Amino acid sequence: MFENLSERLERSFKILKGEGKITEINISETLKDVRRALLDADVSYKVAKEFCDNVKQKALGQNVLTAVKPQQMMVKIVHDELVEFMGSESSEINLKGYPAVVLIAGLNGSGKTTFTAKLGLWLKKKGKKVLLAACDTFRPAAIEQLKTLAEGIGLPVFSIDGESDPVKVALAAIAEGRSYDVVLVDTAGRLAVDQELMDEIRAMHKACSPSETLFVVDAMTGQDAVLSATAFNEAIDYDGIVLTKLDGDTRGGAALSVKAVSGKPVKFVSTGEKMEAIDVFHPSRIADRILGMGDVVSLVERAQEQFDEKQAREVKKKIAKGKFNFNDYYDQIQQVRKMGDIKELAGMIPGVGNAMKDVDIDNDKAFKSTEAIIKSMTPYEREHPESLNGSRRRRIAAGSGTSIADVNRLIKQFEGSQKMMKMAMDGSLQARLKGLR
After folding, report:
1. What is the dihedral of CA 376, 377, 378, 381, to 10 degrees?
2. Tally of CB atoms within 10 A around 54
3. Which residues face 217 on adjacent strands?
4. Cβ–Cβ < 8 Å for 397, 409
5. Contact, 256 vs 42, CB < 8 A?
6. With a cut of 70, which residues of the chain have pLDDT below it?
7. Residue 23 near residue 67, CB atoms below 8 Å
């Protein structure tokens, strides 16, 4: 995400490379390029101008330390201003009330129903008992879509067959949800110009008295998302914004300017199709990623969400006893896959994002041959990797539709992983790394 903007800003900062200090002339030239980069990212002219004016004022007022180069100082100032424009800190969802009612509104095609299910799973992982209310009575397939998504994540859905009044469905769902912690109310997608549907969402908002109202917009629509967020805020005075499809937003206009224009915080972002692909919006982390600094904190948090502690302890015991096998290796691959898109994960590692921008990675293809090879092994072979002689490897290659070279490569990777994990456990890896410093 944001790769176009990241690349443009990186070029802008190079104007200051080799300069001894920040001056009125070189800062003006740099910011002229920064403003162009923001406009190309579909940030409104007013927001881009205000942003650059603020950066210029702060840059010229800085006492630049001799140890800090002007280019580095500029990156720091732009980073801090990006954080400020996007809301400074993350904003928590308000779950007061019993049950807490969260009303989810949004534009047509913004990914609102999918987000409802994602938020339900996110809350479930936080230990909340969640009920999904299917109140989109306008779109025929919406209720079935929510039920299908909910079934995959083990959440109940409340709906009333044949009822066309969404307010009645919502109120009945809230009454039914008294034994739940949270009721998520999915509403019909609408346009700000559709007066009838806007009156309907106002009526729902008034009747449900939600503790939290979230407005869902497609980040890829850029400035249109910002304008619609402003229009809807005037209608229902929502509490926060959700940006969906952020993984496909190479520009970043909506993420950068929606808070500055609407005055409402971005609370969540959706970064993929999987139900787990939802994150709290952290302005500082987004700014880090825009400026190519990575996002290690989010990477660690995502890993912690997916990796099972009990399973990890069992694997640790097996490694200590030298019994780590292909069944364990396969399980580790599945957990990595749940973390999300490989290219997105790589972008969270400082210095790796830019190197990966032109690399096309298919998540499924990346693991497909590895999984096929392991599945073509017999249970005994998976349990006893040392038994994989030449004839067994030829049979596995034929059964998995791969080559013997592919099988040999995987076994070599597996053996390397075994050694690295064993070294990490007995401390010899740390000793070696220390010796290289």
Report:
1. 180
2. 16
3. 243
4. no
5. no
6. 1-5, 8, 12-13, 15-22, 61-71, 190-194, 222, 248-253, 292-313, 315-316, 319-320, 338-366, 421-437
7. no
